[in-house]
Amino acid sequence: MRLNEISFTDAKPIEGYGPGFFRIGGEVIHGPVVAGPEGTVPWAGFDDDAVLLALAGKIDVLFVGTGSEIAHLPTALKDSLEEAGLGVEVMASPAACRTYNVLLSEGRRIALALIPIAS
Fold first, then answer.
1. Which of 4, 62, 71, 81 has the fewest CB atoms within 10 Å, i.e. the most exposed one?
2. What is the value of pTM for the model shown?
3. Closest CA to 114 of 8, 105, 101, 57
4. 113, 52, 41: which is closest to 80 by C-alpha?
5. Phi, psi (rounded to 5 degrees) for 65
6. Rounded Cα distance, 55 and 61, in Å
């Protein structure tokens, strides 16, 4: 068996989540958030595409966690992300957190936009 040390650089793993919050790299963040290669930043949700579009060229895939249940992205957001060349995978936030952590540990070029789960 081969063991590799995991280096997250400025991207931090998702350590936990609950109703209305995420714990990322030891910090509790309330509300929607974007985590990626340049760290963690607040996100205003589906109406805020500027934070996500700034990731173009820096990542290969953007995972979008839509809360407790999987939901469709608003058409305008989906179209702007595709026009910017961002690969987007939509899933429920718990699944997005797990997938992000696995791929982050493999050194992949990824980011994560999360809506908190409901209480």
1. 4
2. 0.89
3. 101
4. 52
5. -95, 120
6. 10
Tokens of 38: 């340049």
Mapping DSSP to helix (H, G, I), strand (E, B) and coil, where does residue 95 land?
Answer: helix
The pair of three-digit structure tokens given for residue 112, joined into one six-digit string? 């994560």
- Cβ neighbours of residue 59 under 8 Å, at least 6 residues apart? 36, 37, 86, 109, 110, 111
H helix count then E strand count, the chain: 3, 8
Please say whether the beta carbons of 116 and 20 come within 8 A: yes
3-state secondary structure of 109: coil
Q: What angle is formed at CA 46 by the lines to CA 44 and CA 48, rounded to 5 degrees?
A: 50
Residue 52, both tokens: 């996500």
Convert the pLDDT of each residue in 41-98 to its tens digit: 999 999 999 999 999 999 999 999 999 999 999 999 999 999 999 999 999 999 999 9
Is the confidence at residue 5, as pLDDT, over 80?
no
